[in-house]
């Protein structure tokens, strides 16, 4: 398989993912906690997208198929994952997390677990359950400003906090 062509595919897929992520972030409340939850809303949208969908992790698949590429695919995958973790860490900091890096790592692990569970069909509604878990973790790990609520006012189940 042509590594260059596959990297172009992965980059295009990443651009499409970022568009979904940005659209969900824009639809969320300005509260950084709601922005963190929007990552999981984007994952839910992505999981049911007809063109890309969430069949599995394209970067992990690429590494398996292109194992002899000298680490090029692994480097590209790491770059994309670092970008998502960076976004999570920045939002966690804005949300008042005592340790934004730790919260970002925890959310990324929940995110990646949902991707894998969805691909393997090992858990019913993995993205929804991951979102619920993320909401609880975000609420526990971040500061709250009295009277500030998220866009939906859904309490612990959503970004209403």
Write the layout of secondary structure elements.
Layout: H1 3-27, H2 32-47, H3 58-65, H4 72-94, H5 100-120, H6 126-141
In sequence order, what are the helices and strands, one letter per element?
HHHHHH
Q: Write out the CATH superfamily name.
A: Tetracycline Repressor, domain 2
Task: State the helix count.
Answer: 6
Q: What is the percentage of strand-forming residues?
A: under 5%
Helix content: 55-70%
Q: How many DSSP E strands?
A: 0
Instruction: Provide the domain count.
Output: 1
Protein name: TetR/AcrR family transcriptional regulator
InterPro entries: Tet_transcr_reg_TetR-rel_C_sf
Structure, briefly:
With 161 residues, the chain is an all-alpha fold.
Question: Any overview of this molecule?
Answer:
The protein is an all-alpha fold and 161 residues long. The chain has a single domain, classed as Orthogonal Bundle (Tetracycline Repressor, domain 2), CATH 1.10.357. It has helices at 3-27, 32-47, 58-65, 72-94, 100-120, 126-141. α1 (3-27) packs parallel to α4 and α5 runs antiparallel to α6. It is globular, with a radius of gyration of 16 Å.
